Amino acid sequence: MKKKLLVHRDGTMASLGKDHHYDLMFCWRIKQGIKKRVDTRRLFQYVQYFWFHHLREHLSEEENLLFGRVQDDFCKRGYQEHNQIRRQIRKIFYHESQQPGAYLKLVDLLTAHIHFEEDVLFPHLENILPARFLAEVSHPIAALHEQSVQDDYADVFW
After folding, report:
1. What is the mean pLDDT of residues 46-56?
2. pLDDT digits (tens, 9 = 90+) for 108-125
3. CB atoms < 10 A from the CB of 147, how many?
4. CA 112, CA 130: separation in Å to the nearest integer?
5. pTM for this one?
6. Cβ neighbours of residue 51 under 8 Å, at least 6 residues apart?
7. Quick count: other Cβ atoms within 10 Å of Cβ 84?
């Protein structure tokens, strides 16, 4: 199976695309941990770390700065997928922390969502949103990304 690469983009969506790189690294690390039969407590701690240090804010940022601007099926799907990811995180946090399948489901949801955004949603938004709006929203997005994602998780289980 051919690996799917993320689209390189400039401008407004570039910072969000960089975030997606880190999100996919997170997914790869979780899969590696499961493959190596790492104790699920270590996976749980990594999911907590990634959620509270990156992913939670990333989802909110996309919703607040982009999805809310357009009321169409693509943005509705973006919201729905974010909510599925949040629900799966909650399942891991409160009910299924010992089940490797719960982590794999999170990985599947997040990976599919990233590819939807990169392949469909972001190009759609770039086509329908006015250039002036994209230029204006690029400033808050860039400001939120002045520091790159900290990739400094101490427990290198992968």
Report:
1. 95
2. 999 999 999 999 999 999
3. 6
4. 27
5. 0.87
6. 89
7. 16
Angstrom distance (rounded) from CA 59 to CA 54: 9
Are 89 and 47 contacting, i.e. CB atoms less than 8 angstroms apart?
yes
d(CA 126, CA 9): 11
Distances (CA, A) of 84 to 32, 149, 158: 23, 23, 25
pLDDT in tens, 4-31: 544 445 566 766 777 898 999 999 999 9
The DSSP result for the chain, as a single string, is -PPPPPPP--GGGHHHHHHHHHHHHHHHHHHHHHHTT--HHHHHHHHHHHIIIIIHHHHHHHHHHTGGG--SHHHHHHHHHHHHHHHHHHHHHHT-TT-HHHHHHHHHHHHHHHHHIIIIIHHHHHHHS-HHHHHHHHHHHHHHTSSPP----S----
How many CB atoms are closer than 10 A to CB 16?
A: 21
